[in-house]
Design goal:
heterodimer, A: alpha/beta, 5-stranded parallel sheet, 4-stranded antiparallel sheet, B: 239 residues, mainly alpha, 9 helices
């Protein structure tokens, strides 16, 4: 896994990563390396640190020990510097309920410095199964639709690394198929890390990392 | 699409555009929910009416004590209305869990600048409404209006700079109201003392040269808070 990276390829390296809540250690000395095209599924009992690992990867939680590095186009980034490379979908992620789906995406595109047309944003919404609901307020969305919108948010900047926490939670069968298609497409673009215990989702990974029970 | 630059390395123009986007998002959200504007206006109006009913009988007097009381009441009304409304900017992001999406997507400086601009806009409305109600109900008569407006504007800028960073800090805390009080006191008391004394001079009819030192102090306070907030905000926001 230490081959020379091609342009536009991404590498994610964890070196002896540890995470803790107060004195309780949930992840200890975890080392791994992933490159473009890799899909990693993280499983484990409740409280084993699956979601924590994803939060560490996107810089939302501080490392207790070790190091996480992203390499992209010859430049190394810590998780806090790499949010332009990362798309994150999680039940913890909420978008603005008082805005419409299109307004949400337009806002996040603007703050990311992306130049996108509304037609592109509408196409993205259609891609995640929200076609025709662009101008609906998020507050009127069902939980499944909000989950689809999280995918639109995460894919907006076409990230090199997609981090999915419970990727099909609240989604119907068609929604799960949409997620499977997104994951396969992401394989061509970069890395996917999935935190789940769902048997169907476990089969999506090239590698399965099982974290210890609490 | 090639990924854009890391959020905290965006060029200045993109940073300012991102700040503008945050401001417009907050404005749009506020116009739809009207939470903060209703809270601050209600507070401003009720304070002016309550003070009028309580001490209105001395409203026609022009003695120095009453001018100081008027000035104090004006800034107390502004302060509490501002604290009531401005803290929402960050607390709401945490309560509705939208802060994580914002944190991952937006440069921290853009968030601070956008929120600061939104708070300044709220304070401008608050200043206008509070002064109008004080003129109506407490018969506030300003002998040097230009100095009064300059002190009010700079005091409000300093207040917005302070409350914005305080709001960011308390939004991350579990004991929000208690922490807000503890942090606010040492930061806001010097600002209020300067603003009250300067405003009293303006009401009394002091010249610009007499009131200029107060204006300078408020500008210095605002600049210091702005710079300190810009430096601190990223650590607060990402903590």
């Amino acid at each position: 896994m230490n081959k020379e990276l091609q342009p536009e390829h991404v590498r994610l390296t964890l070196k002896e990563v540890g995470a803790a809540y107060s004195s309780r250690i949930v992840i200890a000395q975890l080392s791994l390396s992933l490159e473009s095209g890799d899909i990693l599924v993280v499983s484990g009992a409740n409280g084993s640190g699956k979601s924590t690992l994803l939060r560490l990867l996107c810089g939302l939680q501080r490392l207790h020990s070790g190091e996480i590095l992203y390499e992209y186009n010859g430049v190394s980034y810590t998780p806090n510097q790499a949010s332009h490379l990362i798309g994150w979908v999680s039940p913890d992620l909420a978008l603005y309920r008082e805005l419409t789906a299109l307004e949400n995406l337009r806002f996040f595109a603007q703050v990311r410095g992306l130049r996108v047309q509304d037609s592109q944003l509408s196409a993205l919404l259609a891609d995640v199964g929200l076609g025709g609901r662009d101008h609906d307020y998020v507050s009127s969305y069902s939980t499944g639709m909000q989950q689809r919108l999280r995918y639109a948010y995460a894919l907006l900047h076409q990230p090199a690394v997609l981090l999915l926490d419970e990727p099909t939670v609240t989604l119907d069968e068609r929604g799960s198929d949409t997620v499977a298609r997104i994951i396969e497409r992401q394989r061509a673009r970069g890395i996917v890390v999935i935190a789940t215990n769902d048997p169907r989702e476990l089969a999506w990974g090239d590698y399965v990392l099982t974290l210890g029970a609490a | 699409m090639t990924p854009q630059a890391a959020p905290n390395e965006l060029p200045l123009r993109s940073l300012l555009l991102a700040a503008w986007a945050v401001f417009m998002k907050d404005l749009r959200s506020e116009l739809r929910s009207r939470y903060a504007i209703n809270a601050i206006l209600l507070f401003a109006v009720s304070t002016a009416v309550a003070v009028s009913l309580g001490v209105g009988f001395i409203g026609l007097r022009r003695e120095g004590d009453w001018i100081n009381i008027q000035s104090s009441l004006l800034w107390i009304a502004l302060l509490f209305a501002a604290l009531n409304g401005l803290a929402r900017s960050f607390v709401q992001e945490e309560e509705t869990r939208t802060g994580l999406a914002l944190r991952l997507a937006a440069p921290s400086h853009a968030i601070y600048l956008g929120k600061l601009c939104f708070n300044l806009a709220l304070l401008a409305i608050l200043d206008l409404v509070t002064c109008l109600f004080f003129m109506m109900f407490i018969r506030l008569q300003i002998a040097n209006p230009s100095l009064f407006i300059a002190l009010l504007v700079m005091g409000s800028v300093a207040l917005a700079c302070t409350t914005t960073i305080l709001a960011a800090i308390i939004a991350k805390a579990s004991l929000k109201s208690a922490l807000f009080a503890v942090l606010s006191f040492p930061l806001l008391v010097p600002l209020l003392v300067i603003a009250i004394q300067g405003t009293a001079l303006a009401i009394e009819g002091a010249t610009w040269s007499e009131g200029f030192s107060y204006l300078q102090s408020l500008i210095g306070f605002a600049v210091a808070m702005f710079v300190a907030s810009l430096l601190l905000f990223r650590f607060v926001w990402e903590s």
